[in-house]
Structures are given as C-alpha cells and as structure tokens.
Amino acid sequence: MASGSVNKINVAASAAPEPAILDNVSAALKTLWTSQLVLIDAEVRKEMTKFVQAAKEECAAQRAAIEKEKRASQAALVARRKEFDQQLAKERASFDAKVAKERASFDAEVKKLAADRAQLKKEIEDMEALHRIQHGKVKLDVGGQHYASSLSTLTAVPDSMFGAMFSGRHE
Length: 171
Fold this sequence. Notes:
The protein has helices at about 20-135, 150-155, 160-165; strands at about 135-140, 145-150. By secondary structure, it is mainly α.
C-alpha cells in the first residue's frame, strides 16, 4: 500500500452504521483504492519501461555480438579464399610448367620423328635404286668367263654394242 494516513473508523458493534457514514467510507475506500491503483499502475509502467529498456539493450548487445561474429567469419572466409587462390595459382603455375615441359618434349619427339621419316624415306629410295640395280643385273658368259654387270652400266653408252643389245629395241 502507498504511504499516507489511513483514517480509522471506529464503529460500535451494536449500532448500525448510518448510510452517510457508509457512503463516506465507501468514497474514502474508492479514493484510496483509486490512488493505490494509480500508484501500482505507475510502478508497473516504470518496471515495464525498465524491462523493455533492458530487453532493448540486451538485443542491441546480442546484435552487436552477432555482427562482430559475422565480420570475423567474413574475414576468415576472405583469408581462406585468399589462401585458396594462392594455392590455386601455385598449382596452376606448376601445371603450366609441366605442360610446357611436356609440349617441348612432344615437339622434340615430333622433330625427331620427322627426321627419322626423312632418313627412312631416303633409305627406301636408296634401297629401291639398289634393287633396280640388282634387278637389272646381267650375267655374261664371254668365252667361258663369267661376268656380272648391271643393265644400267651396259646401257650407259647408248651407241655402243651393249647399249643396242640391251636397249629393248630388238626384242
């Protein structure tokens, strides 16, 4: 109850209270009750204001903590991304170096194969020429003496006797 003086009403038990007294008591109680309600309402409003303010402050503190944690997480993610990008760059450089090395090796192998192909072609041409020479080999029996010569050697001089014999004009 609020501070203030409360009037004590002394009513004799044997006498019935008068309606005016009852009305006065009732009015005094209503006034007291109203003033108490006003005081209680003011106290409740004051406490509610404190509670709401404390809740707002707590929410603000939690929001600040969440924002701080969010910034820290973002910073950590940025740092991890930077590390990842650096690692990726290193791996890319290593990969590019390996590719360049393999490409150089491949190019050298292609050049070697081209040189081998040219050499093989030359050998094939030489072997074909030798085959023509061997294929065109003529065995001669001159007075019991055996001689071997190539057709190209015998026909090297077209106006000679052998040139005329082996030219193919007289077959």
